[in-house]
Structures are given as structure tokens and as C-alpha cells.
Automatic annotation (TrEMBL), chain A:
Stated name of the protein: Spermidine/putrescine transport system ATP-binding protein
Top-level taxon: Bacteria
Keywords, alphabetical: ATP-binding, Nucleotide-binding, Transport
Domain ABC transporter: 5-235
GO molecular function, one term: ATP binding
UniProt GO BP: quaternary ammonium group transport
Pfam families, alphabetized: ABC_tran, TOBE_2
GO CC annotations on file: ATP-binding cassette (ABC) transporter complex
UniProtKB/TrEMBL annotation, chain B:
Alphabetized UniProt keyword annotations: Signal
Family matches, as InterPro entries: SBP (IPR006059)
Pfam families reported in the protein's UniProt record: SBP_bac_8
Matches recorded under SUPFAM superfamilies: Periplasmic binding protein-like II
Source organism per UniProt: Puniceibacterium sediminis
Taxonomic superkingdom: Bacteria
Residues making up the signal peptide according to the UniProt record: 1-22
Upper classification of the organism: Bacteria, Pseudomonadati, Pseudomonadota, Alphaproteobacteria, Rhodobacterales
This protein's name: Spermidine/putrescine transport system substrate-binding protein
Automatic annotation (TrEMBL), chain C:
Transmembrane parts of this sequence: 12-30, 57-87, 99-123, 129-152, 173-198, 232-251
GO biological process, one term: transmembrane transport
Name of the molecule in the record: Spermidine/putrescine transport system permease protein
Gene3D superfamilies cross-referenced by the UniProt entry: MetI-like
Domain ABC transmembrane type-1 as annotated: residue spans: 61-249
GO cellular component labels: plasma membrane
Native species: Puniceibacterium sediminis
Domain of life: Bacteria
UniProtKB/TrEMBL annotation, chain D:
A Pfam short name: BPD_transp_1
Transmembrane segments: 21-43, 78-101, 108-127, 157-179, 200-223, 256-277
CDD domains xref list: TM_PBP2
SUPFAM superfamilies referenced in this protein's UniProt entry, alphabetically: MetI-like (SSF161098)
Phylogenetic placement of the source organism: Bacteria, Pseudomonadati, Pseudomonadota, Alphaproteobacteria, Rhodobacterales
Name of the protein in its database record: Spermidine/putrescine transport system permease protein
Membrane topology of the entry: Multi-pass membrane protein
InterPro entries the record matches: MetI-like, MetI-like_sf
UniProt GO cellular component terms: plasma membrane
Amino acid sequence: MTAPIDINGLTKRYGDAMALAGVDLGIDAGEYCVLLGPSGCGKTTLLNIIGGFADPSGGTLRIGGRDMVGVPAAQRPTTTVFQDYALFPHMSLLDNVGFGLRMRGVGRSKRHAKAEEMLDLVGLAGAGRKRPAALSGGQRQRVALARALAVDPDVLLLDEPLGALDLNLRRAMQDELKDIQRRVGATFVHVTHDQEEAMAIADRIVVMNAGRIEDQGPPERVYRRPATRFVAAFLGEMNFIPATVQAGRAVTAFGPLGPKTDLRDGSRVAVCARPEHLFPGAGETLGKATVRESVFQGSSRRVTVTPEAAPDTTLRAQLPVGMDAMVNDVLTLALDSGHVTLLEDA
Amino acid sequence: MKTTTRLLAVLAGTTLLTQAAAAQELNALVWCDHTDDALIKPFEDKFGVKVNLKEYEGTGAALSLIEQSQPGDWDVLVVDGIDVPRVVSAGILGPLPVGDLPYDSLFPEMVMEENHVIDGQTYAISEKFGYNTVSFNSAAVSAEDLSDMTALWSDNAPGSMAVYDYYVPVMGMVAMGLGIPTADITLDDLPAIEAALMKLKDNASSVGEVVSSQTAIATGEVDILFGGGEWVTAGLTGDLPDLDWLIPEQGAVRWSQSIGVFADSKQPDLAVEFVKHVLSPQGQAALATSSCYWAMPANRMAGAMMTDEQKAALRWDQQVDYLNKADLYPTPDADLDAAMQDVWTRFLAH
Amino acid sequence: MMRFAACATYMALLYGFIFLPVGVLALFSFQDGRFPIPPFQGFSLRWHAEVLGDADLIAALLNSLMVAFASSAMAVTLGFLAARAVATGRLPRAKAISAALTAPLSVSYLVIGLGLLASFNLMGQSLSLATVAVGHIVINTPLCFAICAAAIGPAQQSAERAARDLGASELRVMWLVTAPMILPALLAAFLLSVTFSWDEFIIAFLLSRFDVTLPVEIWSLLRSGLNPKTNAVGSLVFMLSAIAVLGVELATMRRK
Amino acid sequence: MSKTLTIEGRDRRRALALAAPALLWTLVFFALPFGVMAVLSLWQRTDQGLEAAWTLANYAKFASSPAYLQAALNSLEITVVVTVLSVALAYPLAWIIAVELPAKYRRLALALAVVPFWTSYVVRSYAWSLVLAKRGVLNGWLGDLGLPLMDLANSRAATVIGFTHFFTMLLTLTIYASLVQLPPNLRRAAADLGAGPVQIFRFIVWPLALPGVMVGAFLTFALCIGDYVTPQILGGGNDLALPQLVMLQIGRRADLPMAAALSIVLMAAVTLAYIAMARWMKEPSK
């Protein structure tokens, strides 16, 4: 039904290029894990290695405790939902979804029953006689999902499964995917470059960059306390305020900011704060700042300001609605130090 | 739409151009032995014209080519001697000025008045002749084995064999072998001829036209070529001295080709000059030893222009004997011709 | 490993089959003797020299090139225009028209040639290289139409629409937008068309008179005497074409 | 001039104008000649020339003479054997090039597979006659190896080999084209769901590439059954094919009407093959 994945020191080399430069990752059984990163970061390569479509150049991969290196895709307890869905255009939905069972020698009536059940699970009950060409993009995606789930995989791999859908559909499918995962209980490994999707759906986010894992953990932790500057910047917007450590505090142009630190004096760090944690009023004040740009965003107002204390930096803040801030207005901004992270400069 | 009109105009223009250009050109419908420069070039140089040659095989092919042409397209025709009456009656050939042509120096058998003269008008003149008989590789088969032609369609043929793919002479030969003179073939004789042909086909490994027959015997593919003769072997004896030919005791078929001028030729004088050129001793020598096939010139005077080796290969000195032993090509009327062609089609499909 | 070995063996066998006649042809074109058959008697360039010195063959080669290029240019033009008409989506009975335009593809060349022969005869049109070209346009237009139709997609449609919106006339849309966008397809159609025309025998045989194309000249060479000259023509034509094909291949590769 | 045109109406006219040249060409130089042939096939050849007899005599002659029927049968048999053999030989090669070979060698392998295409069709057939001749290259090798010699020249086998050579090249191209169009993810998806190589081929590749293969096979059929050169050069006059019979009518008898009738018969065979293929492809692929 479900299985953990255990990856140790995995590398993948294409000629001189390192697609994966030593990846260690443990995914628990039944977990919804999202591999997140910009294109070319190695996330799809990693998925292909887990799925059995590519060989690693080094390292180990275990699924449910079994060594998987060299095992062909067909013999792994994994199935994949492909980015282009890869539906068989010449087969009905029932035959598409039942294909894996057919390969396992399951009889026609049994596999059709299972296929119906799966189509029902993805909200396509009764469409089994149709051909893929008769479906919309979102429906095809569901068929691909049903097909991959029909063989009861321990691990389901999803390669940018929502990439081809429009925004509304994507949001709806995120919820549904999560729901389906809970119901079937299998381990899901989902690749995406959309950080909102990742946060909405994942039990564990794995942020990758240049063939390495930069950070991994529950979405909230990774968002709030990113391990690296890359992660901080990739997961939404972030203000980086340059600072130097003095007596256990990060000292910026605005004075000491953020939590205490063990770093030795003189270390260069960045004080990281998300726009929503900058607000007018009390707290660790950043002093006066002039509004340069102000954009209404429905649930909030986003402003770009130049602080008086550091005229060379721009900061972004998210103000609650109802708070008008016109260009050239002067605000006094403060920082919620509970939400601030210190990151050492690389 | 405009493009098409313009294109059609261009096409029409090209046609006009080619037709206009044809004024300085002589168009001849010939057999492949007329295409050598040795024959054509002297004429072109002398008259400052271009000779256009279209090759064909078989009178039927010539007739369809002529039917698919416009009047005046052609000037000179080379055709089987026996088919001259047929093309004359179709109105294709015009009369020749007898006085200008070397009738007196032809081999007497080549005058063939019954073919060439119709209602007192001469329409064509013989230019080349030879025999459809048996060619063989003397290293593999002895002449004695071939002296009885019927052996070739018996149960034990003397060697591997190919058959020349032309119905008139080969069926004529088979008729001779069965004791029927070629002039006497009737519809009633066809079943016997067909039966012999089918046996012949069983013994033969291939049926082919001039070059494939040549190839077959020259490369050792077969030892015997039924329907062959000096026209297959003479040109090759320099390289392959073992190649030989003979006339079996039952006889063989004599073929001859004639040349004439089209009735609707736009330049009859030039056309007659071409005929005269081909019939001249030089022209005859070149024609006799053409690269396509060798055979006897119709004009005895050509001998003076040929080497002894060439004459030996053509058996120049034995012609009297050969001419006696050989019957002329069969001359079937339309019904017999159609029936013979049907037999031949069955022979090919057998 | 087994799989690799199986594939390699199969490829070797099939390439052997494919190249066998060409290799034999080329080998015996160097035969130092009268007969192009084993045993190989030694190396000679005599037959190649004879081919190059044969005015009829050279004339036929030039005729072939002329017919191939002229007929292909026309076929590509006709095919391209028709493909654009179908692609607009506004052509009435587009399906029937497409079917009619591709119909000649499935008709034997012999039948097309005979039909044209009889028709030209009826029209009083005498035969020439132009009539051969007409026949070759008939067989190549469907091909060019199909290739162009496959290449014109939604991308061209929207670019054309944009160009029209910006005031380009229909002719300029075609010349400045559509044609450059599907240039590779046009080129492919043209080259394929040239190849087919270059190699075509029976139509050229039936529809030509004195000026003939290379295949027809080779045909009469084949029936007028046994010698390795035929091999030499074949190998020379082969080398010429192979060089041309390689040249085009290299040129397109470099542009990429 | 007062007539107003809608935008769509103008577009339709414009489209028609674009299609007109090709249509006109096809009409004048393809459809019309075809009609001429059909009409001619009802005429008769007489001594005086062609006579508009309006008779089915030519067809009756075809249907009643065993030699003609035999020629049609020969053509059909040769064509079917060649088509099946060529597909069988070309498919694996196209597969290897499209799937097994690293992408960078594909173009080269494909180019190599069709290079002999450019030897000139007539010469290719002739080259085979050199290979297959009794004292030809093939038997030379067999003799050197101490193997029994083969008598392939001037036979149906020679015709079939010559044809198969040509059409294997052609089909390698067309089959490659339809194989390479298949998204590779389909094969991966099937493998992922547990299909082995044989099953992937049977359930995914074969049915999806089939239409392309069928079109290639049909073209092979149409071109092969109508070809005159190969059987004429390689068949050795032992196995008359329909196109040879057609050419015999013209070359030997100047009988254009009979040639036309036989051509119509030839086209009927191709049309039947086409209908069979279209029917077969329309049926659901199960």
C-alpha cells in the first residue's frame, strides 16, 4: 500500500554536467513530498531515478527497504503520472486505466471494475467509454492519475502534474490530489516549480537547486525559517537587510535586529523578513521610510519603500487593507522579530 | 488561375519553339543500330543538319509512335522488310526516287520487289539483313548437337538455353523446325507451333530482348540462344572466340530491315539524301558493324570498306549458302498476326 | 547486451542487403574488360571516361536536371498554394478537394503516363521535355501539397492573421510570413520532388521524343550493348546524387 | 459592383483562388487523361487505326484469356509478397533507428538506409541482375564458401528481390516517420505500468504506428503493382506482370485501347486494395 523512500548520496552525471550532486533524502511512508525548484535544478532527474527511467551515477535508492538500483520501472512499486499525461490515444479510458492490471494478467471484468472505481475516485465516473481525445486537459490529468493509481502503487510519482492546467483548475486539483493521497495512503512524490502549489499540498517540501537539496521539511518551517538565502528567495518574497554580528546581535543600518545569534563577532549576515512581517507601528522599528510604489492587491496593499536610515536599500511591505499609503507618503515601519531569520552570507 | 494560364502559355511556347527548330533537323525513327556517330556524324557534317533519332523495337511500337505524333513530325523510317507493305498501306511511307538509289549493287535477294514495290512505286529499300537462327557457345555445346533444331524442344535439350523475345522470327523458326515454310503458316499450324514453343520455354531459363539475350550467352548464363544469329555473336567474337552460330538442317529465318521516307515529311529531299547516305558503301559498313548489333549490309559494295576480320565474323563468303537455307520472315495477315501475338503472350506467361 | 548484439546484427545484415547492388555496380564500373561480371579483371577508368565523353548521356543528364528542377518548382508552387487554401479553414469542400489533390499518389506511373500520352495525342500536342515535365508535375504536386499541408499549423495561421491585421496584402503575407515560416517543409518538398523526377522512368519514356531524360537514356544504353558503361553511369549518378544530398544535409545542419 | 461581399465570403473566394491552380492542373492532366483512358478502353484497334467501337471486347478478352488473367495474378502475387516482405524487413530497421539508436546517430543511419535510392531506378534493377546472375557475384561468393549455388536470375525470385530492395528503403523512411512521432512517454508509461518490451510493442507501438505503416504498405502496393522496369529487367520473360502486358500492347501491337483496358484493370486492383485498407483502418483497433 505504501512505502518509505530512502536516498543516500545519489548522484547523476550527464557528461561533464552534474544533474544531481549528492542527494540524501528520506521520505516517510504515506507522506506527500513535493520536490520544488527552478527548472534545471535536478528535481525531474531525481524523480526519473526513483521511477526507474534513469540510472543514478552513484549512491543508493531504497523503496520500502529494497534496493532499487538497476530495477526496471515495471518491477518497482512505483507508478508515474507524466507531465504530458502520456495517455494511450487509441484506447478508451477504461482500457487506459486498466492497462496496468492487464499487464499483471488481471481478467477483463475485474480490471474494468477497478478502472471504474478509479475513474470514480478522480471524479470521472461513467466516462469510461470515451477516448482521451474527447477530454479536456483537466480530465486527462485525472485519467493519468487514475491509471497510475489503478495498480495500487506504494509510491506515486507526479511530474509537474498540474503544469498544463489553468490557475483555477490547478488550485482545485491541488486540494483533490491531497484528498486522494489521504484516501489511498500511498507515498506521493510530486515535482513542481510552483512554490504556492508546493506549500498548499506538501507534507514535506524538498527545495532543490543546482543538483542539491537546499532545504527540506514541513512547508511552514521551510517558509518561515528557510535554511539558505536561495530557499528564502525562492519561496515567496523576502527582504534581505545586510548586517554584521556584534555581541550576539545582527546590527543593521537600523540598529540591531532579529533574534540573538551564536555567530562570532564580525560575521556578515542578512536579516531576512517577509513583506507581511513589516508593518507600520511598534516593534523593532526601522524608522521612517518613503513610499515609492503602492499596489492594491485585494486582500492587502503592497508597498515599496526607501528607508531614511539606508537610502540605498528598498524594502517591500505588505500592509493590511484599509491602510492607505500613497506614493511619497512617509511611513514608520517596524519588524516582528519573532518572524525574522538570520542567514549567514555565503 | 493566372499562374496556370501563364504556365500553359509557356508550355505552348516551348512547343512552338521546338517545332520551329525542327526545320533544320531530320527526324528518324530507327532501330538501335543507327545511333552510332560513325554512321550519323558524316551525314550531319556534310549537310550541316542535326539528325534526331528515336529508337524503337518492333513494328507495333513504331506504329504507336507514329500514331501518337503529328503529321510532318517524322522524315525517315527504318522498318522490318516484311512490314513495308503494311506501313505503305497505312499511308505512312512515300515513294522513293529509284534512280538515285544503288539497287544494282544490292545482294539480289535484298531487292525484294514484292515487298518494296507497290503499284509500280518503290517505297523502301533494304539496308541490312541477317538470320534468326541458333547462337551457341562452342566450348559448351557442339555444332552437331544443334544441327537438328527439334532437339531444342525435346525432353533432353543439349544445353542451357535462352530464347530471343520476338514473336515473328522465333515462331517462324519453330515452323521451319516443324517442316512448315514460313510463307505457308496458317492459323491451323498454330497449335503445333504453340506446343513446341511451350516445350522450348520449359527448356529455357529466360526469354529476353537483344541485350539480355546477348548478356545471357556472353556471360555463360546460357549455352544456346534460340533466335540468335550473327547479330548477337559477331560483335562479341573479338572478346569471346568461343561464340558461334549455325543454321540447323531444317533451316532458319532471314530477317531484313528496310529504310524509307515518310509520305508527309516536310523535307523529303534531305530525307532521301539520308537514305542514300545509309545505302552508300561507307554508311553500309558502319551500319553492318554498329555497336548495337552487327549484320550483313544489303549493299555488296560495302565489303570494300570492311576489314577481313569483320567480314569473317559476318561470314561474308558463305552468304550464298546461308541465303539458300533461310526462309524469309513470316508475313502474317492481321488475323494471323493477332493470333500469333496471343500465342506469344501465352508463351511469355507460361 | 543481447539486445544490442541483435540490433547490430540486424542492421549489418540489412545495410548489407541495401548496399549490395550499389557496391557491385560500382566495383564492376572499374572492370578492365568488356563484361561487367566476375571475375574482376583489374582496375580501369576507361568506362567512366567513356560516359563523360558520351554527348548523349551528358545531354540526357542536363535534360533530367532541367525537368527535375522546373517540374519541382511548379509542383511546390501548386502544392503550397493549395495547402494554404485548405489551411485557411474557409475553403468550401476542403476535404473533397484535398482527396482529389492527393489522388494521383495512388495511381501507377504507367497509367498516368499512358493517359497523358493518349490525351496529348488527342490534343495534337507533340511530345517533348515539356510534356515529361507536365507528367512529373502531376505525380509530384500531391506530394508537395501533403508536405506543405502538414507543415502549416496554428502558428502560421496566427502569424498570418497578425500580418494581415498590420496591413499586409495577401501576396505579401504569403511571401513574407507563411513561406519563410515553413521553409524547411518547402525545401523538403522540393528536394523530394526533384529526387522523384530525377529517378522517374516510365512517364519520361512514354512522354519524350528526341530529347530524353537520363533514366530513358540509360534504358536504351541497357538495350544497346553489353558493357560496364552502364555500371559507370550508375555509379557516377550515384556519386553525384550522394554528394548533392550530403551537401544539403550539411548545409541544413550548419544552419541549425 | 454593387454586390456586397461578407468577410467570410471573400475569404472563401480567396481560398478557392489559391486552390484553383492545383485543382485545374489535376483536372486537366490527371482526371481528364484518366477519362480518356476509360473511353479508349472501349475502342478497338484495327488495321486502319483506332476505331470508336464502344465495346467491352477488350475487357472480355482480358477476362477470357488465361494468359492475361495469369499476368494479373502474377502481378498480384508478386505485389503482395513484396509488400509483406518489405514491411517485415523495414519495420525492425526503422524501429532500431527510431528507438534503439542514440539520437545523434539517427540521421546518419536513416540517410545510409536510403542512399542507394539515388542510383537511378533503372540501374538498380540492372545491378541486381549482375548480383543474381548464374555466374554473378552472389554465386561467386557462395562458390568461394563451398555453398550450393543459387539460380535466382531471370525468375520471379529476382523480381521480388529487386522490388523488395527498393521498397524496404522506402518503407524504412515511412515507418521511421510514424514511429518517431510517438511520444516516448507512452512507452515509458506502459513500462511503468508493468508492460514488458513485447507487450509495449503489441499494445502501444504497433496499434499507434499502424496507420502510418498501412499507408506505407498501400503506397508500396500501388507503386509495385504498376511498375514495368523491375519485372522487365529481372524477370527474364518468365513471369509476365500486368504492366509488362500493358507495354506489350503498345510496343508490339500499337493497341492503345487494350493497353487502356488493362490499365483500368490495374487501377481497379489498386482501388480495391485501397478500399480494403480504408475499411480495415476504420474498424476499432481491437
